[in-house]
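In the previous chapter we treated chains in isolation. Here, by contrast, the input contains two separate entities that must be folded as one system, with a combined length of 536 residues.
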Amino acid sequence: MSEILDLTIAEARRSLLAREVSAVELAEATIRHIERSDGHLHAYATLMVEEALASARAADEEIGRGIPRGPLHGIPVGVKDLCHVRGVPTEAGSAVLRGFVPSVDATVVERLHAGGAVLVGKTVTSEFAFGPTIRPTRNPWDLDRSPEGSSAGSAVAVAARSAFATIGTDTAGSIRAPAGVNGVVGLKPTFGLVGTGGVIPMSRSLDHVGPITRTVEDCAAVLSVIAGFDSRDPHSLDVEPPILDLEPQIGLDGLRIGIERTHLPEPDLDPVARDAAERVARTLEELGATIVEVEIPQLELAEASLVTIKAVEASAYHLPRIRRDAHDLHQVTRVILQAGALISAVQYGEARRARALITQSVRETFQRHQLDALLGPGWGPAASVEAIEQAPFTAVPFTFPMRPSTVNLTGMPAINVPCGFTDLGLPRGGVELWGRPLGERTLFRIAAAYEAVDAWHRRVPAIAHGPVPEAT
Amino acid sequence: MRPEQVDADTVAAAARVAGIPVPAEDLNLLTLTMRRYEEVVAQLRGADLGDADPPLTIDPRLGW
């Protein structure tokens, strides 16, 4: 792998502006690296070689003429294969959409284009973001480990240096979980801050579009490009995007960060994840933050509320496919959609009432304790693919774990930040920070301060540098 | 419905009412999935939701 692929976006941007490297060199190095490694990782569903090189040449020409387009100008990025890119297939991991080529860009893609980003490809998603991952995407830290879902391709591409940043979607943790187990940064922004126009939905009231990057600073850079009002998204917030330039603040003096040890951790949470959150809490305290113990009992209702809303809304959207294209759906996807159609309107109403109650409780907790953020455990280390395949299959899992997905119900922003490695060399699954609505800037400040101390983002999986290892 | 009351006949009947085709090869897995769903939502059924009422539009800023 070329060393330039190890640069952060901020570093690459400085090199581009100083003409030490060209956008074409970045794009060519990225494409060569994908072609070398992706036969093992399967992070990409579609490569966009010609389009990427044309965008890179245009970026070089504009940079040469002093026309700035922002922090992603000339930077290779990937987008999840749920987001439409005009003239490029959107197949959403499903045989149902095989060969479908959209004629318009998703709003997030329009914004990436406007920002001068170089799109190198579409990243793998599980079928419509909730079925199984048909293409066998693998974790770059250990090819025998799961990359999680559904934005698996996006997280793997960033971790393996096959993109500087990617776009994922998060309906119940699908940006943050793969970011966690692949050792990169994932942000679920405030609901409505990043438009969902032109993105195949799962559950319109829970869906979020957001960035996956290697550093917190890069995450802020991508968000600054993709955030903003989207007339195609009925839930879009008509607000100015938050100011996201990170000030060089190392200390966290004056910030109050809650920790919920009773109801937020799943009952069967991996001890590695629990321990990681406790370690990060101590670090944040050493950086000057005040750690506040809080309790939010209503978090225990999150699973029932989220499962119901997600399944019903997904089934409502995909109903024609259940009736017309059922044979082309994977059985797991098909059964989830069938199940959503059998949930009663009363159950859906109850789930929405529970959602209101959970949102109110989280909000009141923030207000009562004057919190700037809430710290919670991440997702634990990646499971082995073999263990997943051999697990007794007694029911289709709707989604798990659920409590980190509370933020999909409340709409508040949440970021997953790398927090170290296990003795086996696997990422610990990251830790989660939740913020107040439109509180991304505070989350970035906390996450960046932590990142500056522990610097886990500097560790690179072997597959990015050395010979491609074989999965067993 | 309690989880143990969910069986293949009930699920098949509910699917017919909902107008959802369920191929024979899916019925067992769908039944198990609905049973699991009923286990999950049992917690919701027993919860005191008070006067919580969902908003008609979702704006995460409301109330903050």
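DSSP finds two helices and no strands in chain B. Chain B has a mean pLDDT of 90. Compare these points with the single-chain example from earlier in the chapter.
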